[in-house]
Write a structure and sequence with these properties.
The structure holds two protein chains of two kinds. By secondary structure, chain A is an alpha+beta fold. Chain A contains three helices and four strands; from the N terminus they run H-H-E-E-H-E-E. Chain B is α+β, with helices and mostly antiparallel strands. Helix content of chain B is about 25%, strand content about 30%. In chain B, strand 2 and strand 3 form a beta hairpin. Classes of the chains: A alpha+beta, B alpha+beta. Strand 3 of chain A pairs antiparallel with strand 16 of chain B, so a sheet runs across the interface.
């Protein structure tokens, strides 16, 4: 009888461990799911242009300088979008902003932006 | 259907006795609990999967009895009361539970070699019960002797269990089998095979696999996050606020570029000409347009603001 109870208890415990594992995973993921900067928390999206495009709402080019340092390059920015883009870069919290270089293009009447960031 | 039921009852009442490796005796049990000998078969050629109750002769098991004078002492049923009487290590032996005969006041226990017993259990169906003959066979006549190889046994009224009789000193005729003797289910050997612990091992292995899965799937990550929470950076551009004030002094198209350097806390404005840069510098280096907290410098067509504390 003790043996049966032991087996039952161990199986229940195993099921509990698995359920707890799934719950823990979803709990781990919840900050990422609700974070608009989740791209910087996942190594597979940190240097992916589409993810950055979604965050900045503008075409970007990502250039990895080293394993941790990378450049985000934006071209042909309309002057009306400059302020919101600068705001977006200032709000980045999962990477260190080192340099922000804003260049005016007189001929096109637009701006180019080059930003250097470092991952933790 | 009815005949099948009778057949089943018949099978249930059959008692088998393994007298030796070459001799398996088949008995039927009558209503009074007496064994009626039927036939002898070779155990090697007999399908033991039909056997529900099996008696083991003295060839396979040993036993002993004792009277415990201290009535306050009640041994646990799993106690190996006679383990010291065997020359074999008790770990290699399987013991029955202790049986107490209320009439005689004697305790009895039988034991057998685990290897041999497990070999027998493997041949039997699950749930089959194996009884040592010495404890479970009763004779009303103390002078009735029977062969239980390699001994001749008789019933002891003193103990209420079987005893070994010296056949050379006994002139009585002994029976070759248990015909006419009573069978009482007193104590049996419990199967100690891996089959019983298989479930426990399987449950343990399941728990281990589940634990490893949870560790690799999420627990390790949780612990890492707990130990090393993600760093939070504050990337406010410190000179951004004054640029809003200074931009009134910059005419459209005068600036070529604007650089915020967070490492050096410097903001550099590059003008299209040295003259425009100098004019901007002159305007903001003297009151009333000096910007508090920032130092200003000019070099050719660039004007640099830096945080004064850093300087």
């Amino acid at each position: 009888m003790i043996r049966i109870f032991s087996i039952f208890f161990m199986l229940m415990l195993s099921a509990g461990i698995v359920v707890a594992g799934f719950e823990l995973k979803s709990w781990n993921r919840s900050p990422i799911l609700f974070d608009e900067q989740a791209l910087l928390l996942k190594s597979d999206t940190q240097l992916i242009s589409p993810a950055w495009k979604e965050y900045l709402n503008h075409d970007v080019r990502i250039v990895a300088v080293t394993a941790k340092v990378f450049e985000v390059s934006l071209e042909n920015i309309n002057h009306t979008k400059i302020s919101s883009l600068l705001d977006r870069f200032q709000k980045i919290k999962h990477a260190k902003l080192h340099k922000l270089h804003l260049i005016a293009d007189k001929q096109k009447q637009t701006f180019d932006l080059l930003v250097v960031l470092t991952l933790p | 259907m009815f005949s099948y039921g009778l057949l089943w009852i018949d099978e249930m009442k059959k008692i088998f006795r393994l007298a030796s490796p070459e001799k398996l005796e088949i008995y039927s049990l009558n209503r009074n609990g007496k064994l009626i000998f039927q036939k002898v078969v070779n155990p090697e050629s007999f399908n033991l999967k039909k056997v529900k109750s099996l008696l083991l002769s003295a060839y396979y098991s040993n036993w002993d009895t004792t009277r415990i004078e201290n009535t306050a002492y009640k041994p646990q049923h799993h106690t190996k009361l006679f383990s010291s009487k065997s020359l074999l290590i008790s770990d290699n032996l399987t013991f029955t539970k202790l049986y107490y005969n209320k009439k005689s006041g004697y305790w009895a226990q039988a034991w057998a070699m685990s290897d041999k017993l497990n070999e027998i259990f493997r041949k039997l169906p699950k749930g089959a019960v194996v009884y040592p003959e010495s404890i479970n066979i009763i004779s009303e006549d103390e002078m009735a002797y029977w062969r239980s190889e390699p001994f001749i046994l008789s019933h002891s009224r003193k103990t209420g269990f079987s005893k070994i009789s010296d056949v050379s000193t006994t002139q009585a005729v002994f029976s070759e089998n248990l015909d006419g003797l009573s069978f009482s289910r007193r104590a049996a050997f419990e199967e100690k095979s891996s089959r019983n612990s298989f479930g426990l091992i399987l449950a343990g292995a399941t728990m281990l696999v589940c634990s490893i899965f949870t560790w690799t799937y999420s627990l390790q990550e949780s612990l890492d996050n707990f130990r090393n929470p993600p760093k939070i950076f504050y990337n406010d551009l410190e000179s951004f606020s004054f640029l809003e004030m200074a931009q009134l002094s910059i005419s459209d198209g005068a600036l070529v570029s604007l650089t915020f350097n967070q490492r050096t806390n410097e903001t550099t404005l590059t003008f299209i000409s040295n003259k425009l840069a100098q004019a901007f510098f002159n305007e903001h280096s003297e009151p009333p347009k000096v910007i508090d907290g920032f130092a200003i410098a000019v070099f050719e067509n660039t004007v640099t603001f830096s945080v004064e504390t850093a300087k």
